[in-house]
Amino acid sequence: VPAIELDNVVKEYTSHGEVVRAVKGVSLTITEGEFFSLLGPSGCGKTTSMRMIAGFEDPTGGVVRLHGEDVTGVPPNRRDVNMVFQSYALFPHMNVWDNIAFGLKRKKVADAEIRRRVGETLEVVDLLGREKRRPKEMSGGQQQRVALARALVNRPRALLLDEPLGALDLKLRQHMQIELKRIQREVGITFVYVTHDQGEALTMSDRIAVMNDGLVEQLADPREIYERPATKFVAGFIGTSNLLGGTVQEVAGDTAVLALGAGDRVVIPRGGTVAAGDAVDLTVRPEKITISREQPAGDVSVVRGTVSEVVYLGTYNSYMVVLADGAEITVFEQNAHDSSTTAERGDTVWLSWQPRHSFV
Ligand code: ADP
Ligand code: MG
User: Fold this and answer.
1) Which of 16, 47, 48 has most ligand 1 atoms within 8 Å of its beta carbon, as the pocket-test mutant?
2) Closest ligand 1 atom to the C-alpha of 41?
3) Does domain 242-359 have CATH number 2.40.50.140?
4) Per the database record, which ranges form the ABC transporter domain (predicted)?
5) Domains 4-236 and 242-359 agree in fold
6) Dihedral pair phi/psi, residue 112, rounded to 5°
7) ipTM of the complex model
8) Domain 4-236 belongs to what topology?
9) Does the Cβ of 13 fall within 6 Å of ligand 1?
10) Reduced to 3 states, what is the DSSP secondary structure of residue 303?
């Protein structure tokens, strides 16, 4: 049985007499024990989807199932999930131990059991020895761990985390990403993680649902999302992408020939759906492109252009190359061997890539 299922879930709000469709029909299945992320720009419906899983909102349409059971009408405290908020929501006047034990005390769990579970949880979140501190005596990262511990101590079957690292600075956020992943592996429960940060989602998730404007545009593992974005939106939202407009000239087997705006002809994987005459967008990631001063040979896709910008970025160089039709292509070049650049501003260059590294 899947841990969580959304079956064509819709959520409409009425605000000042106007209907806002926050979620427009989302279907997805989250497996038990999975680290699952909802990723998308601000306002795309991530929090609303999460709140319907937690039970803070009722769907306008569709069904939410938790561990196979339709939870329509089941209040949040009777669902086997816990939510962790970005704002931590800790009790400022209570120390760490009491913050974590609070829920168990309210549920009248026996003292010995509370001691055992709070102790265990402190260990998991790496806060042993800090139990007497007040929230304001702790760093943001530590407060976030307390908030996490307070949810974990209830031993929910799934934990819902809504942008939990949003308030932390970059270094700490990256550290906590690794920590969260470790904790999830250690406790083995389902994590549903909401973020607008693509790097965060790629780092931690087993699978990612990329949302845009109330809908899921792609649901796949991080590699697939990055290497094979299903839509133009996903390609643009995840990482840096180059978009090249062109027209399909001919189709042969599983490849097709594309005429680009600047006149170059490149071979592309057919991708099942294209036919001669179709206008399409070709996407190639900057790190898949090789830049050279001489025309490359072999079975590669090649376009010609002029370097308009070179930026030295330490581990790699970034080039901006302008094609004859004005299209701008970003190329990343690893600084593996020496720090010299292949081309300078104003140089004519050839850009090449393996056809399988481009997608339509
Ligand atoms: P995200 O978490 O992805 O940033 P939300 O789920 O918070 O997005 O919001 C999705 C859309 O629904 C937004 O346009 C937001 O303004 C709207 N919305 C969210 N909550 C309410 C509400 N209580 N009343 C009216 N509109 C809302
Ligand atoms: Mg949100």
Assistant:
1) 48
2) 3
3) yes
4) 4-238
5) no
6) -60, -40
7) 0.98
8) Rossmann fold (3.40.50)
9) yes
10) strand
User: What gap in Å lies between CA 211 and CA 217, rounded to an integer?
Assistant: 6
Answer yes or no: is the C-beta of 20 below 6 A from any ligand 1 atom.
Answer: yes
Map out the domains of the chain as residue ranges.
Answer: 4-236, 242-359
Ligand 2 centroid to residue 359 C-alpha, Å: 31
Q: Pull the structure tokens for residue 304.
A: 């010609």
Q: In whole angstroms, what is the distance from residue 324 CA to residue 303 CA?
A: 10
The reply to whether ligand 1 has any atom less than 6 angstroms from the CB of 48 is: yes
Q: By alpha-carbon position, which residue is closest to atom 17 of ligand 1?
A: 22
Supply the pLDDT for residue 300.
86
Q: Is the pLDDT of residue 87 over 70?
A: yes
- Nearest ligand 1 atom to the CA of 47 is 2
Query: Which of 31-35, 102-106, 138-142, 204-208 has the lowest average pLDDT?
Result: 138-142
Structure tokens at 2: 């899947």
User: Of 178, 183, 172, 168, which Cα lies nearest the Cα of 125?
Assistant: 183
> What average pLDDT is seen over the chain?
91
